[in-house]
Design a protein that fits this description.
Elements: H1 16-19, H2 21-55, H3 65-73, H4 91-107, H5 110-123, H6 127-144, E1 153-158, E2 165-173, H7 176-181, E3 188-194, E4 202-208, E5 213-214, H8 219-227, H9 248-255
Antiparallel strand pairs: 1-2, 1-5, 2-3, 3-4
Helix pairs in contact: 2-4, 4-5
Amino acid sequence: MTPPFDPNDPEPAKPRRARFAGLRNSFLTGLVVIAPIGLTVWLVWTVIGWVDAFVLPFVPHAYMPESLINRWLGNTDPRGEDWITVNLRGVGVVFFLLFTVFVGWVAKGLIGRSLLLWGEQLVDRMPVVRSIYNGLKQIAETVFAQSETSFDKACLVEYPRKGIWAIAFISTTAKGEIQDSIKVDDQMVSVFLPTTPNPTSGFLLFVPQRDVIELKMSVEDCAKLVISAGLVYPNGKVPPVDPAKLPQDAREKISA
């Protein structure tokens, strides 16, 4: 009697699709590793080039790296054979940083504060320029100021309706006319609700304190969650599941 499966029979060939499954998985894995690094390098390189293109035209030619190197080597004729051509990306960034530090150092002194006050008084007399300057100044002070006015807590608020929760950042408690105009027997809190995947735009909401659920995770972790549209959870861990919220059959399997 012949057995249904002869051990000496050759092993059946794998389908053609399975041959490329390993290459496809390796390609996707490499893409996940390379894409963030490549995009970061490209973005930094592009920003540095943009700053160089904006700043270098204001730098005197005598202080450019090419002129300094050739002057140090004794080359005086740019059309000579010994003239060395140098194109360094990032020189404009260095000049911009040095100039910014110098302006900040001067602005902290008495003369700098007096000049700044005189300039702001001059700008306040210009109707259109005044509005643009004051708006940009408030944005810059909010973004770059190292004070307690920055976002320090993340929270959950019901938006755009009851039963739907959204991540927001607590700005501060409402004061003055905002607090007095809202007829609620509770302290109002101003929160910024960012949009996905661009967290720099969003909505300013005034929510009662009792309707705000503060989160333990940091603002940076919440920002990652917003930017990734919920794909990247804090610390890369999936939130634990409460067994009481599982269906009856799933609880029976866990208990078994």
